[in-house]
Design brief:
Length: 432
C-alpha cells in the first residue's frame, strides 16, 4: 500500500473535524447558558418589580385602613384636651366640631356645603401628623422621610340619619396627586412609583341607652328609706310610672315622700309597679335597657372608664369638664364632694361598674346606671336631684333627701346621640 506524503504544516483531517466539533459544542453551551442567565435575570427583575408593587399596595392599603381606624377613634372621643389635627379648634373634640344632633334623631354635618377633610402622614418614627380643613382640601403636613399617608372625607347620609360614610385614600407616598379623592366617581391614577387605595365604610352609632326607661326609678332588689325619696313623672307622653321594680316590695318600702307626683294627678299606688316579671331577673334589668352584656357595655370605645381609688369626685368632674358624656365609675366608688353634672343640652350617662356611694349633694342631668347597690347618704342639708332616670341592678338605700325627675327629653338625647360609632356590617367597599 502506497501512502501519500503529508505536506509540512498540514493538519490531519480527523483532528480538524474534532476541534471544530468541540468549538461548536462549547459555543452552543455558552449560548444556552447566556440565554438561561438572561431568563433568570428577567425573572428576578420581574419578581422584584412585582414585590415592589405589592409592597406599595400593602402600604397604601394599611394607610387607608389606618385612616378609617383613626377617624373612628376620634368620633368616639369626647375629651377635648388637645386638637387631634392641625386646623381643628382647640378645646373642642372632633366629634363636636364635625357633627350636630338632628331634632328627629341621628346626626348631620355642621358644614354640609363644605365637606370636612383630613390629611395625615406617617413619620419615620411611626407617628401621625395630621392637618384638617372644612372648606378646602387639607394640606399635607410637612414631614421628612414620610412612610405613607392617608386622606379622609366624611359624608352624612340623609336617608340614614344615624349612619356616616367615611372615604379613605391611602398611599405609600405623600404627594397631593396620590392623596386625592376622585371627582364624580372617576378613578384617579397614582403618580409613577406610588400606589393608592380608596376605601369607603359606613359608621353607625350604637346607642348607650337602647331602650328608654319607663319610670323615674328602675330597681332590681330592695328599697330602703323611701321616705327620703321623691319621684316625679309628669311627662304626658309617658305612662306616668314613678317606680318599676322587679321584686315585690313591702308596703313600708313603698312609702315615698309626699311630694312625689305622677302625670295627671294619678294616685301614687297606681304609679308604682312592683314584681314586674317583664323586666326579667334583676341581673337582666340593665341588659334590657342597654341591649348587651354589662361588661361589654362598659368596654365601648365611647365610654370613659375612670381609674380612681374610692373617692372619684375630682376625676369625674374633670372628665365632664373635658366634654365626656359617658363615664364609667369603678366598683365601690364614692362621691364625697358636691357635683353638678350634665345639662339640659348635654346630658350625661353615668355608669357604676358595681356599687356606688353618694356622700354629697349630686345634681345630674341624664341617667344613672348602677350594677350593684346604690347608697345615698349626703351630708346634712345636702339635697340630690336627678333629671332623667335612675337604674339600679341591686338594692337602693336612701338616707338623705333625693329627688328623681323623669326627663324624657334628656333620655331621648342619650338614646339618639350618645354611644359609640362602629362599622356597619358589609359596608366596607374598596373602589380602587
Amino acid at each position: 500500500m502506497t501512502r501519500t506524503p503529508r505536506q509540512h504544516g498540514q493538519i490531519p483531517q480527523r483532528r480538524w473535524i474534532k476541534g471544530f466539533s468541540t468549538l461548536l459544542t462549547v459555543s452552543v453551551l455558552l449560548y444556552l447558558t447566556t440565554l438561561a442567565m438572561l431568563h433568570i435575570s428577567r425573572v428576578q427583575t420581574l419578581e422584584q418589580k412585582l414585590g415592589a408593587n405589592q409592597w406599595r399596595r400593602v402600604v397604601a392599603q394599611d394607610m387607608a385602613e389606618s385612616g378609617l381606624a383613626w377617624l373612628q377613634q376620634q368620633l368616639n372621643t369626647r375629651a377635648s384636651a388637645a386638637p387631634p389635627c392641625a386646623g381643628a379648634p382647640a378645646g373642642r373634640s372632633l366629634r363636636a366640631h364635625l357633627l350636630q344632633a338632628r331634632e328627629d334623631g341621628g346626626w348631620q354635618l355642621r358644614h354640609p356645603t363644605a365637606p370636612w377633610q383630613a390629611a395625615c402622614v406617617m413619620t419615620a418614627e411611626g407617628r401621625l401628623q395630621c392637618q384638617c380643613a372644612s372648606d378646602t382640601p387639607a394640606e399635607l403636613p410637612d414631614a421628612e422621610h414620610a412612610q405613607g399617608g392617608f386622606a379622609l372625607r366624611l359624608q352624612a347620609l340623609p336617608a340614614q340619619p344615624s349612619v356616616l360614610r367615611v372615604w379613605a385614600v391611602g398611599c405609600n407616598g405623600r404627594t397631593r396627586g396620590c392623596l386625592s379623592f376622585p371627582a364624580d366617581g372617576a378613578q384617579a391614577e397614582a403618580p409613577p412609583g406610588q400606589s393608592r387605595q380608596l376605601i369607603t365604610q359606613d359608621l353607625a352609632l350604637v346607642s348607650s341607652l337602647k331602650v328608654l326607661p319607663a319610670a323615674a326609678l328602675l330597681l332590681g332588689q330592695d328599697l330602703h328609706g323611701a321616705q327620703q325619696l321623691t319621684l316625679h313623672n309628669q311627662d304626658p307622653r309617658s305612662p306616668g310610672l314613678l317606680l318599676n321594680a322587679t321584686q315585690v316590695l313591702s308596703p313600708a318600702d313603698l312609702q315615698l315622700s309626699a311630694a312625689s307626683r305622677s302625670v295627671g294627678g294619678t294616685p301614687l299606688p297606681q304609679a308604682l309597679r312592683v314584681g314586674d316579671s317583664a323586666q326579667g331577673a334583676q341581673t337582666e334589668l340593665l341588659r334590657h335597657h342597654i341591649g348587651m352584656a354589662w361588661e361589654r357595655y362598659l368596654k365601648q370605645p365611647g365610654a370613659q372608664v375612670l381609674d380612681c381609688a374610692e373617692d372619684c369626685s375630682a376625676a369625674l368632674q374633670a372628665a365632664v369638664d373635658q366634654g365626656q358624656r359617658f363615664v364609667v365609675l369603678p366598683d365601690g366608688a364614692v362621691l364625697s364632694t358636691p357635683l353638678n353634672l350634665g345639662s339640659a343640652d348635654a346630658p350625661l350617662l353615668l355608669a357604676a361598674r358595681g356599687s356606688l356611694r353618694v356622700q354629697a349633694a349630686l345634681t345630674l342631668h341624664g341617667a344613672l346606671l348602677v350594677a350593684g347597690n346604690l347608697q345615698w347618704q349626703s351630708a346634712a342639708g345636702g339635697v340630690s336631684d336627678v333629671l332623667g332616670a335612675v337604674l339600679v341592678g341591686g338594692s337602693m338605700r336612701v338616707e338623705s333627701p333625693v329627688t328623681v325627675r323623669f326627663d324624657a327629653q334628656a333620655l331621648m338625647a342619650l338614646h339618639a346621640h350618645e354611644g359609640s360609632f362602629v362599622p356597619v356590617p358589609a359596608s366596607w367597599n374598596q373602589l380602587g
